[in-house]
Write a structure and sequence with these properties.
single chain, about 650 residues, mainly beta, Immunoglobulin-like, Jelly Rolls, 4 domains, nine-stranded antiparallel beta sheet, seven-stranded antiparallel beta sheet, 48 strands, flat
Amino acid sequence: MLSFALVIAAVSSVHATTNLGPWIPIFKGIDHATGTNTPGNGGFPELEVVQALRVDLTDPDIRLVTTPRITNYIANSRETPGMSVSDFLVTKGVQVAINANNFHDPGTLDSPSYTLPPGTPFEVAGLAISQGQLVSAQEGPVDSASILFTTNNQPTIISSNWPAHSTAGFFNAVSGLYPVLINGVNIGSNYLGSSDFVHNQPQPRTAFGLSQDRHFLYLLTIDGRQPGYSDGAWDWETGEWLQMVGAFDGANMDGGGSTTLVIEDSTGAPLELNQSSAVAQNGTERTVGSHLGVFAKPLPGFINDVVALPDDTAATITWTTIEPSTTQVQYDLTTNFNNSSTLQATMVTNHAVLLTGLTPNTGYYFRAVSSVGANQFVSSSKFFVTTNYVTTNQLFDLTNAWKYTTAKLDGVNWAAPAYDDSAWSRPGPALLWVDVRSSGPNPAVGPKNTQMPPDSNNNGFPYTTYYFRTHFTATNSAPGTGLVFSGYIDDGAVFYLNGTEIYRLRMDPSPTPILNNTLASGFPCSGDATCLDEFSIAGDPITNLVAGDNVMAVEVHNYNQASPDITFGTALVETQPYTSEPQLNIAYTQGTITLSWSRGGFTLQRADVPSGSWIDVPGPIVSSPFSSTNLNVAQYFRLVKR
């Protein structure tokens, strides 16, 4: 597991202490350093904690990515989907993520609510390019400190991108509020005396910088608004910190409560390096409209190239070591690592372990362990999810017919199979919808089949809640049966099977009561049902599934009472587990046969005749590929699951 020591100097009223710790490699091509300032005579006047990353732009394994366009993109209005920096890291699969451009509510200069759900559309301030596609054009002299990158990460910094420079040949770009470092000169003091609150008091800061030779990109956060921990920085202090880390040019990006620097830990989870003022105040990261992410490879060490190849009830773990050493894997459903494979004492550099007795469709933490004498080496924690081989049978499709009602049904067991729904509307095919926008329904939402009435007592807006029921026939209710839902739902919903609740989508979690006036906790995509909601239910939640007639009931809730639309429709598929056979491939090249297979969880066996006797190939061989030059006699091979 990656670990970081964030050293905070003790406050002294006598001497100022400004310290930048050593650069510590955390990924290949990325180093981390922590800076602190204790106020006192002659130093910075604020208590400050700084996190800095140094990204080697010449490393061939470093790749950059910025926030892409939103679905149904509209320039200068709907430009990017908002998300937290941690969500951006997970969604994009990057190893580093940080907030970038300033952003606004669509089509305005208003500051958005920073707790809006992921996917909320934002307008980005200043130039932004994502993977060669223009996301935001430079609108004017404000927010015009732009940093642009070619496909091979060659950077260009433009201190004032107005009039706007050509973007031809650039692959990614972000923009800051204004420059603080130009050609090695700190210009941050130029902003003193400004009436803008950003300049006239210490603030949390996000800053980007480039070395003079453009070898390094620097990503910097200065925490603030947290007395006793970190007060924040003036613009001139931001420039000083950029110079200390090695920058020659740099810009102050969007800061304040949006300042967030996150890295991926060894299990793929986000780890926040800085201490965001938004998290300190509200317990959650802000939803922001612009991000910069960095792809990087792990650091080389004694144990390298750790790979998990899972199957449904087994997994093969392989790795290499720089010296011959022993072989063992520790694993568990948590990072307690209470389970261990049998120790293989043979000293090797290419290691393989077969884990058996696992549960399908389940996540496991694991780590590789290799020893040389008394020295034990342990990899960072890793994570895999076992597969789940199933056959499918569609129970109904997206346009399935549903009865519905707008009546208030609090305290009524309306989801039960025996409930009399004869007073409800006649069955209507999905999508069932209401949209009272003056501009008309969104054409991207479809297929629109059954229009439902709005609420005349709610200023013509939709009812807060619509209730739906349908019958379907299941062919199997044996153990292992699962249900897979795939639909368009705006905004939130609660699903019931034969009267029992089985799933909540964008609703407050159980056991919070759901009433007729309960509002959804979020909404899909950018506010319309334009992307699929997909989820699976198996095990205890559907033990009441029966072979034959079943009732599915759903209540759909709006996000707020003035929301102009509501949409519902879902397909349903029944799944059953089955045994999947692996594919064993053979190739012959210059006197050598090579056997290969693409799934984990199997051991290679051989025999002289197809009828046996089968024995494990010495090793045993549990990972692909296997090569042999013993071609003097006929040999037969097979894979067997342990």
